[in-house]
């Protein structure tokens, strides 16, 4: 019998993808402390030396994993907006609904984010990526809110309103991931949509002063 090779011989792009996916699994199951080059390479079925070949060490691989997950979230939300069409209300609603559906609403993703959050204060690269990812996220929210406000002739402080809406979405996502029996995904979605509806019912809320 021929002996099977110990490690896979994938193309470089495939190896990078496997390493990033393995890093996400390690972070979810073992946390940052338990995420080692050896553990990542075992799960990716590649030689440990390939980690340093494709990335500048474990920290770089974790940072790239953070970026990749942020890209996945961005693509998911972007696809929902495209499917919603041009109407501002439909687009804002689609954004909220997509936030309460897989792959964004995933309890396994919480453990991965906790690992990233623990690095934001200590790893300058992760901090920079965190700032960039969330800045793009809030900018998209500002645009959606601004378009919906313009449709109604309301002058809204889109920056502060986007920050508030982002905090609500993050908070409900976190609570659902910790204990999905407290409220359903549909209830979480409707809670946010009700809050947005009150923006238009009380248009002075969130208006830019001065």
UniProtKB/TrEMBL annotation:
Keyword Transcription among record annotations: yes
GO molecular function per UniProt: DNA-binding transcription factor activity; transcription cis-regulatory region binding
Domain HTH tetR-type residues, every copy: 13-73
Annotated DNA-binding residue span(s): 36-55
InterPro entries in the record: BetI_C (IPR039538), DNA-bd_HTH_TetR-type_CS (IPR023772), Homeodomain-like_sf (IPR009057), HTH-type_TetR-like_transc_reg (IPR050109), HTH_TetR (IPR001647), Tet_transcr_reg_TetR-rel_C_sf (IPR036271)
Pfam families: TetR_C_6, TetR_N
Keyword annotations: DNA-binding, Repressor, Transcription, Transcription regulation
Top-level taxon: Bacteria
Protein name in UniProt: AcrR family transcriptional regulator
Lineage of source species: Bacteria, Pseudomonadati, Pseudomonadota, Alphaproteobacteria, Rhodospirillales
